[in-house]
Amino acid sequence: MSLPEHTARFTLDPDFTVGPVDPRLFGSFVEHLGRCVYTGVYEPGHPAADAEGLRTDVLDLVRELGVTAVRYPGGNFVSGYRWEDGVGPVADRPRRLDPAWRTTESNRFGLSEFMGFLRKIGPQAEPMMAVNLGTRGITEAMELVEYANHPGGTALSGLRVAHGDKEPFGIRLWCLGNEMDGTWQTGQKTAEEYGRLAAQTARALRQIDPGLELVACGSSARDLPTFAAWEATVLAETYEVVDHVSLHAYYEEVDGDRDSFLASAVHMEAFIEEVVATCDHVAARLKSGKRLTLSFDEWNVWYQRRPNPHPFEDWQEAPRLLEDVYTVTDAVVFGSLLITLLRHADRIAVACLAQLVNVIAPIMTEPGGPAWRQTTFYPFAQAARHGRGTVLDVRPVSPAYRTEKYGEVPLLHATAVRAEDGSVTVFAVNRDRERSLPLEVALRGCGLTRVVGHSALADADPEACNTLAEPERVVPHEVAGAELSDGVLKAVLEPLSWNVVRLA
Ligand code: AHR
């Protein structure tokens, strides 16, 4: 064991909680982008494809990953999308240019196919649909909700029935556009323009289906100059007619500054707290007792500055785009982003890992070939499985290290979730690249007596990753030595590691 001062500590007490975890915190995202849909989830003719063309090997991995809400169909894609193109007989569907990603969209996969995909994932999968508020508006959004959710007897609901979907889809969760503040967004709007359109759309959609849960677009990134002013303006218009405001954040290592990259969660945490503060400020101004929750509907590690290693021509169909290969280092950062989401479970209602397959994704596929798990698959799957219940208030005291971007940052990043049966899972990241970090957790009033297991994702090679050639190079391993006695858990966190310690 190292010197006592190089030890991280915290106390768990079931009386001190953050709040319950909304299962939708483990959501994901399927966009018509690159190979997420085509040759990702959907590949008719693949040896593992079912009668609907869905890859059953991918479906198995999606179930294992444990995703809940799945956002669809974009992303930037939705801001130029006509939902009608993706319904009805496949042979009649038009091929269209997708201006967002400069590709060609065949529309062989659309709303009905997406809902079929979700049904096959299982009952935990819930759709989160985005409407196009870039090139379209209130009418088209209303028409989509009528098509999707109205039982029948009208032109649009009847069309759905005629298309073979007798039962309404019952989609509750809707995004009012995507990243409408972004200069790259087709039909970008000012905060005033968007706020008014989003509020009017929200009211119109609720007139059709009062039970909807609606997400207003927040900022596409915390570092944009319009951040926070955008939220304040948009929410001043929409506060009483929406349920959540969105956040998007992607992280990457810049100029070899790995120490700052490992502390990315500091940025994410500040982002969440600033959006919460902005929401509550608007509530105060409006004298509203309502509290908005957050939809962190795009988050991940994404190497946006790297050139695409797969050259492609404009207007190709389903080219290889954004196919980042994730290392052990990426998985540790990713794990700490998950910890951040859990640590704010009191205000985060929905979070979507962007994206699900092939495109900055935990699951990769080869056309006609196998599917495999990236390093980031494991933290997500473990958190989605064991992070159910109530988040306990964890206030670590930890040795720290210096970072260029964020100053002094604790080496330990941690949270803990208490399940209904009283068992507790500790999720912890050791940001130290060189040294192990001893961890001591005082368990007060938890009634816990044993360590069920300590799993870690770490590797002697921080660049290790899973590839087509070596799909299982990186997998979590069991760590010996964690012990619980006299109400204290002691465990050692390997250098640069993601850890899951389960207590019962
Ligand atoms: O997830 C990839 C892209 O990132 C999405 O299309 C967009 O919303 C964001 O900028």
From TrEMBL:
UniProt-listed SUPFAM superfamilies: (Trans)glycosidases (SSF51445), Glycosyl hydrolase domain (SSF51011)
Lineage, highest ranks first: Bacteria, Bacillati, Actinomycetota, Actinomycetes, Kitasatosporales
Keywords (A to Z) from UniProt: Carbohydrate metabolism, Glycosidase, Hydrolase
Catalytic activity: Hydrolysis of terminal non-reducing alpha-L-arabinofuranoside residues in alpha-L-arabinosides
Protein name: non-reducing end alpha-L-arabinofuranosidase
Domain of life: Bacteria
First-tier enzyme category under EC: hydrolase
EC number of this enzyme: 3.2.1.55
Membrane-spanning segments: none
Chain ranges of the Alpha-L-arabinofuranosidase C-terminal domain: 297-497
UniProt keyword Hydrolase, yes or no: yes
InterPro entries hit by this protein: Alpha-L-AF_C, ASD1_cat, GH, Glyco_hydro_b
Description of how the protein assembles with itself and partners: Homohexamer; trimer of dimers.
A Pfam entry, by short name: Alpha-L-AF_C
Family indicated by similarity: Belongs to the glycosyl hydrolase 51 family.
